[in-house]
Amino acid sequence: MADEITTTAAAAPSERSSERPSGPRGPRPGGPGGPGGPGGPGGRKFFRRKKVCKFCTEKIDAISYRDVRLLQGFVAERGKIVPRRLTGVCTTHQRKLSAAIKQARNIALLPFAARY
Ligand SMILES: [Zn+2]
Fold it and tell me: Tens digit of pLDDT for each residue in 82-91?
């Protein structure tokens, strides 16, 4: 009786290992741990922009809502306003910028949200 149980238990794992040569998550090249991974020295995934306010440097005080090409630089593909921490725009100009973007949206110069 006891002998029967041990044989079935021993046969089961060997059968399983032969069934699948590699799991669903096999070793893939270029996985985590490569150069430029998260936490690496200076290896940041996102493109780092100049952390200087573009409007302050160019001395632009009023941001025109008609300047779509300028505004589009601060709007993501999906139509979202890019956060200040990514663009480096100062608080004053970000507020003017978002107001201009919203005005531009209202007259259909910019999308509210991109379509899927
Ligand atoms: Zn500024």
Answer: 999 999 999 9
Looking up tokens 């270029």, which residue turns up? 30
Could you give the C-alpha distances from 28 to 16, 32, 95, in angstroms and in order? 22, 10, 45
pTM across the whole model: 0.56
Q: 22 CA to middle of ligand 1, Å?
A: 55
111 CA to middle of ligand 1, Å?
A: 24
Ligand 1 centroid–CA 59 distance in Å is 8
Question: What's the pLDDT tens digit per position in 13-69?
Answer: 545 545 555 556 655 565 455 455 455 565 555 555 557 899 999 999 999 999 999
Which residues lie below 8 Å from residue 56, measured CB to CB, with a gap of 6+? 90, 93
In the reported structure, the alpha carbon of residue 89 is separated from the centroid of ligand 1 by a whole-number distance in angstroms of: 6
Residues whose beta carbons lie less than 5 angstroms from ion ligand 1: 53, 55-56, 90, 93
